[in-house]
Amino acid sequence: MVIILYGFDKYEGLSRRPETPPHRKSSLPKHSEVKKRFLEICDNTLPDEIKAALRLPAFDSYEWDDADVIHLMQTMFMELGLIDKFNIPIETLREWLYEVYKHYNEVPFHNFRHCFCVAQMMYAITQQANLIESLGELEVLILLVSCICHDLDHPGYNNIYQINARTELALRYNDISPLENHHCSIAFRLLEHPDCNIFRNFNRETFNFIREGIIRCILATDMARHNEILTQFKEVVPIFDYSNRSHVNLLCMVLIKVADISNEARPMDVAEPWLDRLLQEFFAQSAAEKSEGLPVTPFMDPDKVSKPGSQVRFIGLVLLPLFEALGELLPDLIDLIIIPVRVALDYYKKLNDAQTRSRKSLAENTENSSDGGGSPSLPRSQSGISVRSRRSIPSQKSASRTSVDEPTCLAAELHDLPEGSESGDSETATEVDVAEKTSKFKVDTECCNRSKSSHSASRKSSREKRPSMISEMCSSGSGRMRNSYGNIHGYHTNRCHFGSNRAVSLDQYSTSNNRRLSDGLQQVISDSNVFYNRHVRCSENDVVPGCGPCSGGVINNANMAANDKPKMPEGSALASILSGGGGGGNGVAYGDDTLNMNLANALYDSSNSNLRQASVTIPTNNKTSGNNSSNGGNGSCSQNGTSKSWKQRFKQITEMFSFGFEKTNKRFNSASVRSSPCSIRNNNATGADLQKPGICCTISNNMSPSLLKRNPDLVNSGRNRAYSLDVPPRNRYSSSSGGGDSRKSSRNEDNSINRHDPFAEDNNSGPSPGQYVVGFGGAGETRTTAEMATTSFWSTLSDRLSNFACKCCEQKLPDPENV
Ligand SMILES: Nc1nc2c(ncn2[C@@H]2O[C@@H]3COP(=O)(O)O[C@H]3[C@H]2O)c(=O)[nH]1
Ligand SMILES: [Zn+2]
User: What is the ipTM of this complex?
Assistant: First the structure.
């Protein structure tokens, strides 16, 4: 076996573990410049006024250059007393910060500055709410490190893309928070290197506790889990107990979530450029989705969202409810971050109203004018993203408690929200709605014996649409594992079986280091344990039947130093919960394979959500199959002599694609789940002219000349998409190479789907379009083109299925007779 080392020149020979230290392929010349400068200034003590500014949301990282930002991060650790308290070697902290800096990508939003902003907001919150006192230093250390690492190596495309595009990350993490798992994995890979291991002076138990905490915090930043976490947090707020570990865990998750989405708590001149960067990233993703024929994420589609509309929805439905819940527990934060957010919402509502009025009047003018030509859209900013206007000093109304205090009235207050938007209407769905739906898996953060009613406070979300797997697991006893794994397994089976090679290896160890490859698998399991909360110590009595064994615990704090000993769970903290894995409507909605789509389009009548009549015209005299058919017709398919039961093939493929006929309502459903015939995969299954209050950062930029430099450029160079920077390029698959992308190959140049491909082929050999007179069923029967085309479709499909082979094992589908 050839082991290829991709080591840092700098680190070579310094460490024994790992052999391949955290690696950055695209190490840029600027990185070493930044490091050089950072090392020049890192011993400087910042003036008090800068330290004070660092504690405010008004702090603008773009006032500083990269080396200064790293220095500012170091300052946070020092000011919080974490270096002294935990004996963190300063050189190690510096090395680690620099490596973290290097492992953020130059994408518009999820870049190193974003990580700094999140960390800085956490720092501001920590200071304002005195979290050191209430949570202790160790928890604060976990929070700060989590913030710094929470988006490491973010490719600029979110989980929705990862999952829909079936990237390597999605495959590796089974669609369960693929990005967050990746960020977390990178974080701990960095810490594996002794020179970067800021926790090197902790004992094993404390390290394990920190690791668990960081994993929990970073995984909590997946917006697919927003409602779940918020609902649980709101339940504990009235009875919050700082000595209750599960309460503290929830608080930490909410804190990092708040920091992560806190841009709108900043003054407009700081917040708005961030929003522009975010929209830039969103629009790039939706453009990629369009060009790749993937489902287009609605809140990222510039054809569907406006800047104020996006913010009205995000702030009103996602951000503010979270902030307000935290404010209930930590009232010190109301002035710091909640009121500014209310002001921002007010601002965007007004702007949105102004835009709506403007559009309406433009539309009316266009209708009334004979020459037309008026564009209904408002002028855009130079960036093409926004209408520039200023937030005003808040009116009395906005400074007081506004309508956002009444969540139930909120939807009505959100002027641009059409009725039903909260139910996840594709055009008005929030990021949380779409993320939940896309991720499919729901994981409870706490314990499987929680009352299901505990989620009832959650606003309408996909949780309500999908039956919780809590009850499924607990009621089905030993069937639990089969149910959960079966569900996950079948889902991925379908994908991998006919999927494209778009996935790019993100695992730098997959070819060069077998140990790491197996670590990768363990990582998934380990993450799952944490994710499902099996890691928390529990007694036998804690085990709820059907919830699986307690894994024994990552944490064992029995020997932890008294001072550092974290507060452990008081009650029984149990078990992993996958809730609501099966729903999400019909399977077609999630499948984007060409064949799947052709099937869907052939059979699904979008006008009434029913199967087309013709598509279910199935001969009744074939008694060997057809048990999945609805609305059986009569006669048999004899058009091209494919007597090799297309019905059986149909049954086969519906199962392969995880959908089936439901006799009663003639719709597809996704309940049917089968495992892949691929043994390899199976084995691996696993307006306003407004101005915001002038809270402004009055930093005298006198620390270094470079501090005077403002960098207004959007960092929008090369995007790494799903590629990890730590993957040797030669390990990457080319999506256009080899067999190519099956999905792409079925698309026209304009990206439209070749919905009628099979039909077209068959029509070549059949009678001319219009009417077919066929001689089955005794008397000649007149059938419509659509009916015959459908029959023809299945015949063709049957033939084609014979040629499908798994990309992994090259195994073909079994003969229908063997299905
Ligand atoms: N529309 C909108 N989305 C935001 C805003 N701030 C954060 N988000 C989203 O919330 C997500 C939180 O997790 P990520 O950082 O991965 O990506 C973030 C964005 O997609 C905002 O101001 N407006
Ligand atoms: Zn983030």
Answer: 0.99
